[in-house]
Design a protein that fits this description.
The chain is α/β, with parallel strands linked by helices. It has helices at residues 15-29, 66-74, 92-100, 105-111, 126-142, 159-162, 167-176, and strands spanning 2-7, 33-38, 78-84, 114-120, 146-153. Helix 1 links the parallel strand 1 (2-7) and strand 2.
Length: 178
Protein backbone atom coordinates (compact mmCIF):
# COMPACT_ATOMS: atom_id res chain seq x y z
CA UNK A 1 0.00 0.00 0.00
CA UNK A 2 1.22 3.53 -0.73
CA UNK A 3 0.89 5.75 2.32
CA UNK A 4 1.39 9.51 2.58
CA UNK A 5 2.12 10.74 6.11
CA UNK A 6 1.71 14.49 6.65
CA UNK A 7 3.07 15.81 9.95
CA UNK A 8 2.27 19.16 11.53
CA UNK A 9 4.76 19.88 14.30
CA UNK A 10 7.71 22.26 14.00
CA UNK A 11 9.49 20.18 16.68
CA UNK A 12 11.53 17.50 14.91
CA UNK A 13 12.03 15.54 18.11
CA UNK A 14 8.63 16.34 19.59
CA UNK A 15 5.79 14.13 20.69
CA UNK A 16 3.70 13.95 17.52
CA UNK A 17 6.75 13.20 15.37
CA UNK A 18 7.53 10.36 17.78
CA UNK A 19 4.00 9.04 17.16
CA UNK A 20 4.54 9.42 13.40
CA UNK A 21 7.83 7.48 13.66
CA UNK A 22 6.10 4.64 15.50
CA UNK A 23 3.26 4.47 12.96
CA UNK A 24 5.77 4.43 10.09
CA UNK A 25 7.89 1.75 11.79
CA UNK A 26 4.86 -0.55 12.01
CA UNK A 27 3.72 0.16 8.45
CA UNK A 28 7.21 -0.35 6.99
CA UNK A 29 7.61 -3.63 8.84
CA UNK A 30 4.51 -4.75 7.00
CA UNK A 31 6.03 -3.80 3.64
CA UNK A 32 4.11 -0.59 3.00
CA UNK A 33 5.62 2.25 1.03
CA UNK A 34 5.79 5.52 2.99
CA UNK A 35 6.13 9.10 1.75
CA UNK A 36 6.55 11.53 4.63
CA UNK A 37 5.83 15.25 4.27
CA UNK A 38 6.78 17.47 7.22
CA UNK A 39 4.53 20.45 6.66
CA UNK A 40 6.23 22.72 9.21
CA UNK A 41 9.54 22.46 7.35
CA UNK A 42 8.11 22.57 3.84
CA UNK A 43 7.67 25.52 1.53
CA UNK A 44 3.89 25.53 1.10
CA UNK A 45 2.30 28.83 0.29
CA UNK A 46 -1.15 29.85 1.45
CA UNK A 47 -4.07 29.24 -0.85
CA UNK A 48 -4.91 32.79 -1.90
CA UNK A 49 -8.37 31.92 -3.21
CA UNK A 50 -7.51 33.21 -6.68
CA UNK A 51 -9.58 30.34 -8.09
CA UNK A 52 -7.18 29.94 -11.02
CA UNK A 53 -7.37 26.20 -10.35
CA UNK A 54 -11.14 26.37 -10.72
CA UNK A 55 -11.21 24.03 -7.75
CA UNK A 56 -9.43 21.21 -9.53
CA UNK A 57 -9.67 21.66 -13.27
CA UNK A 58 -6.44 23.66 -13.71
CA UNK A 59 -3.06 23.60 -11.90
CA UNK A 60 -2.50 25.72 -8.81
CA UNK A 61 -0.50 28.89 -9.53
CA UNK A 62 1.97 28.19 -6.70
CA UNK A 63 5.11 26.27 -7.55
CA UNK A 64 6.36 25.02 -4.20
CA UNK A 65 6.72 21.78 -2.23
CA UNK A 66 3.03 21.00 -2.65
CA UNK A 67 3.76 20.08 -6.29
CA UNK A 68 5.64 16.97 -5.12
CA UNK A 69 3.15 16.18 -2.37
CA UNK A 70 0.31 16.43 -4.87
CA UNK A 71 1.66 13.51 -6.92
CA UNK A 72 2.01 11.35 -3.82
CA UNK A 73 -1.49 12.20 -2.61
CA UNK A 74 -2.95 11.23 -5.97
CA UNK A 75 -1.06 7.93 -5.93
CA UNK A 76 -1.65 6.97 -2.30
CA UNK A 77 -4.12 4.52 -0.85
CA UNK A 78 -3.97 6.07 2.61
CA UNK A 79 -3.27 9.57 3.94
CA UNK A 80 -2.17 9.94 7.58
CA UNK A 81 -2.42 13.30 9.33
CA UNK A 82 -0.23 13.63 12.43
CA UNK A 83 -0.53 16.85 14.40
CA UNK A 84 -0.16 18.40 17.81
CA UNK A 85 -3.32 20.16 18.91
CA UNK A 86 -2.95 23.93 18.85
CA UNK A 87 -5.98 25.83 20.16
CA UNK A 88 -8.42 22.92 19.71
CA UNK A 89 -7.32 22.15 16.16
CA UNK A 90 -4.53 21.07 13.86
CA UNK A 91 -1.43 23.27 13.45
CA UNK A 92 -1.52 26.05 10.89
CA UNK A 93 1.15 24.38 8.73
CA UNK A 94 -0.87 21.21 8.26
CA UNK A 95 -4.06 23.21 7.71
CA UNK A 96 -2.24 25.21 5.06
CA UNK A 97 -1.46 21.96 3.25
CA UNK A 98 -5.09 20.85 3.46
CA UNK A 99 -6.24 24.22 2.08
CA UNK A 100 -4.10 23.51 -0.99
CA UNK A 101 -6.08 20.29 -1.56
CA UNK A 102 -8.58 22.75 -3.08
CA UNK A 103 -6.66 22.54 -6.37
CA UNK A 104 -7.06 18.75 -6.53
CA UNK A 105 -10.42 18.38 -4.79
CA UNK A 106 -12.26 16.43 -7.53
CA UNK A 107 -9.31 14.07 -8.08
CA UNK A 108 -9.01 13.39 -4.35
CA UNK A 109 -12.75 12.78 -4.00
CA UNK A 110 -12.71 10.37 -6.94
CA UNK A 111 -9.78 8.44 -5.44
CA UNK A 112 -11.69 7.52 -2.27
CA UNK A 113 -8.55 7.26 -0.15
CA UNK A 114 -8.48 5.99 3.37
CA UNK A 115 -7.37 8.42 6.08
CA UNK A 116 -6.02 8.31 9.62
CA UNK A 117 -5.61 11.02 12.26
CA UNK A 118 -2.98 10.91 15.00
CA UNK A 119 -3.00 13.83 17.44
CA UNK A 120 -1.14 14.80 20.58
CA UNK A 121 -2.29 17.31 23.17
CA UNK A 122 -1.10 18.54 26.54
CA UNK A 123 -4.52 18.72 28.15
CA UNK A 124 -6.14 15.58 29.62
CA UNK A 125 -9.58 16.98 28.72
CA UNK A 126 -11.54 15.06 26.04
CA UNK A 127 -13.24 18.21 24.75
CA UNK A 128 -9.93 19.32 23.19
CA UNK A 129 -9.50 16.26 20.96
CA UNK A 130 -13.22 16.17 20.16
CA UNK A 131 -12.98 19.61 18.54
CA UNK A 132 -10.21 18.36 16.23
CA UNK A 133 -11.91 15.01 15.58
CA UNK A 134 -15.13 16.71 14.50
CA UNK A 135 -13.19 18.97 12.16
CA UNK A 136 -11.08 16.20 10.61
CA UNK A 137 -14.10 13.91 10.17
CA UNK A 138 -15.85 16.71 8.24
CA UNK A 139 -12.77 16.96 6.00
CA UNK A 140 -12.68 13.17 5.51
CA UNK A 141 -16.38 13.21 4.57
CA UNK A 142 -15.88 16.07 2.12
CA UNK A 143 -12.94 14.31 0.43
CA UNK A 144 -14.62 10.88 0.35
CA UNK A 145 -11.91 9.54 2.63
CA UNK A 146 -12.78 6.50 4.69
CA UNK A 147 -11.83 6.92 8.33
CA UNK A 148 -9.30 4.12 8.94
CA UNK A 149 -8.49 5.10 12.51
CA UNK A 150 -7.95 7.90 15.00
CA UNK A 151 -5.44 7.95 17.84
CA UNK A 152 -5.65 10.88 20.24
CA UNK A 153 -2.76 10.99 22.71
CA UNK A 154 -4.00 13.19 25.56
CA UNK A 155 -2.30 14.54 28.68
CA UNK A 156 1.14 14.50 27.06
CA UNK A 157 3.94 16.62 28.54
CA UNK A 158 7.12 15.29 26.90
CA UNK A 159 8.45 12.51 24.69
CA UNK A 160 9.79 10.72 27.77
CA UNK A 161 6.37 10.75 29.40
CA UNK A 162 4.67 9.78 26.10
CA UNK A 163 6.87 6.67 26.01
CA UNK A 164 5.32 5.60 29.34
CA UNK A 165 1.80 5.64 27.85
CA UNK A 166 0.09 3.11 25.54
CA UNK A 167 -0.10 5.62 22.67
CA UNK A 168 3.19 4.90 20.83
CA UNK A 169 2.35 1.18 20.79
CA UNK A 170 -1.11 2.01 19.44
CA UNK A 171 0.49 4.01 16.62
CA UNK A 172 2.95 1.19 15.86
CA UNK A 173 0.17 -1.41 15.86
CA UNK A 174 -2.09 0.70 13.67
CA UNK A 175 0.72 0.91 11.11
CA UNK A 176 1.45 -2.79 11.47
CA UNK A 177 -2.23 -3.73 11.07
CA UNK A 178 -2.61 -2.22 7.62
C1 LIG B 1 0.59 27.37 20.05
C2 LIG B 1 0.22 26.18 20.89
C3 LIG B 1 -1.10 25.92 21.14
C4 LIG B 1 -1.47 24.81 21.89
N1 LIG B 1 -2.79 24.57 22.14
C5 LIG B 1 -3.15 23.49 22.86
C6 LIG B 1 -4.53 23.23 23.13
O1 LIG B 1 -5.44 23.93 22.70
N2 LIG B 1 -4.83 22.15 23.89
C7 LIG B 1 -3.85 21.31 24.40
O2 LIG B 1 -4.18 20.35 25.07
N3 LIG B 1 -2.54 21.52 24.13
C8 LIG B 1 -2.17 22.59 23.38
N4 LIG B 1 -0.85 22.83 23.12
C9 LIG B 1 0.16 21.84 23.59
C10 LIG B 1 0.58 20.85 22.50
O3 LIG B 1 -0.52 20.22 21.87
C11 LIG B 1 1.45 19.75 23.09
O4 LIG B 1 2.55 20.35 23.75
C12 LIG B 1 1.96 18.77 22.06
O5 LIG B 1 2.52 17.66 22.72
C13 LIG B 1 3.03 19.38 21.16
O6 LIG B 1 3.32 18.45 20.14
P1 LIG B 1 4.81 18.33 19.54
O7 LIG B 1 5.70 17.88 20.66
O8 LIG B 1 4.67 17.28 18.49
O9 LIG B 1 5.19 19.65 18.94
C14 LIG B 1 -0.46 23.93 22.40
C15 LIG B 1 0.89 24.20 22.12
C16 LIG B 1 1.24 25.31 21.38
C17 LIG B 1 2.70 25.58 21.11
Amino acid sequence: MKITVITGSPRKNGTSNYMADEFIRGAEENGHNIYRFDSAKADVKNCISCNACQMGTRPCIHKDDFVELREHLLNSDLVVFVTPIYYFGMTSSIKKVIDRFYSIDPQLKAKQNKAILISVQHSPVDQVKEALNTHIQSIFNWLNMENAGIINAIGIESVEQLKQTPYPKQAYELGKSL
